[in-house]
Amino acid sequence: MNLVDPIARPNAPALMSEAFAHCIFPLTNMAELAQDGPTIFAEGSGATLSDVNGNLYLDMMGSISRANSLGYGNEEIARAMYEQARRAHYVGTGSALSEPMIKLAAKVASLAPGQLAKMMFVSGGSEAVETALKIAKQYQQSSGRKPRAYKTISRWNAYHGATMGALSVTDWLGVREVFDPRVPGHSFVANPSRYRNPYGIEDDEAYADLCAKHLERQIQFEGPDLVAAFIGEPIMQANGVQIPPKSYWQKVREICTKYGVMMIVDEVICGFGRAGYWFVSEYFGIEPDIMTMAKAITAGYAPMGAVITRSEIADAIPLFRHVHTFSGHAVACAAANAVIAIKEREGLILRARENGEYFLAALKDAVGNHPIVGDVRGLGHWHAVDFTADKKTRAPFTDDTVRAVVRRMRELGVLAGAMGTAMEMAPPLIVTRSELDRAVAVTAQAVEETARSRGLG
Ligand SMILES: Cc1ncc(COP(=O)(O)O)c(C=O)c1O
What we know:
- The chain is α/β, with parallel strands linked by helices and 457 residues long.
- Helix content is 40%, strand content 16%.
- The strands form three sheets. A seven-stranded mixed beta sheet has the order 4-10-9-8-7-5-6, sandwiched between helices. It has a four-stranded mixed beta sheet with strand order 1-2-3-13.
- The longest helix is centred in the C-terminal third of the chain and has 21 residues, at 433-453.
- The radius of gyration is 22 Å and the shape is globular.
């Protein structure tokens, strides 16, 4: 396949020098960047992406961020955005609404768990988290249930975004290190994790149970009347696709209800099919009080995030003191409506679940017993291979072995991600079985070659 016409191909060296002169590279190690350079992508089709040098990649990371759930070059979404841009691209914020926004709110409410019914749209995941935290705090005050509640609780290793409120409930990626002090009143509790945890408890279920108990203890410690909300990713990204036992989230639900703490489930990654459900809260059998979403809501075709809550919560706030200029941007809403229609029509959510099981089995088969692989796990279209330097102690690699595997996969034409101790893959829902087979083969080759080159078995 030749995606980019060689004659029309951009001038790669000129672009590269302009990139170095004028771009800031978020969360990128500048020493590594100087060595490898950024990748300048040019064009894509389906799950395949090409760079400006004409190299082709199978994108198994959903455009790095896992947002891309329908692949590249989707005409139907592009056309919906174009038509909306011609009609009324943007009509304002607050109570200035557009038809695609209202239609989108009604549609998402019909897909969301339980009684979640009222939405606010924003421009991305971090803004969605900010909005959710503010709804929780303002609801506790306005409703008179907990007029003094300002405290929030999240978990070690959580990632909820980069803006100051979202950052304050975040622990992963070292993003808050230089920005302390955070928003006052926040504390962290233990997070359930697969394969290894800080206390060496071998049974993941037992550890998850302890984590739920830690949350209850922390609410008591902080003072239940002062705690407005708990926020958590239903499946954490830290160290690769951390799927807790269902019982963990059910216990968290019970604890939050018991103490009148708003349970915010951050579905920014999981929502809209990534984990094989419209919202993975359904898989866990829970109904959040407030739920955030972003990324795959538009499949990455336009920046968008959103928050949904129960009517009773939204209606208790007479004047929500929060606004974003691009709330409910009409073109983004048109993109989201098209994305949801395609996923529904093509049965892509169920297909992700089925293909995910197929992919997980194949990955386990290919690398599950390799000496440097500790665990292979996943749900829907989100998978991780967790590495270990010692199968007995489950010790993670402390050098760049995981990054070396990912680098080798990229050389072999497959884009994956290094996520702490694990390698992660999150392909678009339209990926074919033969593309999944190729990703498995490349994973096996990269794991084997990396291990051999480092004398690791
Ligand atoms: C669970 C979760 N919440 C929030 C965010 C922040 O979203 P954004 O980068 O769109 O601001 C992310 C981003 O990865 C995320 O994974």
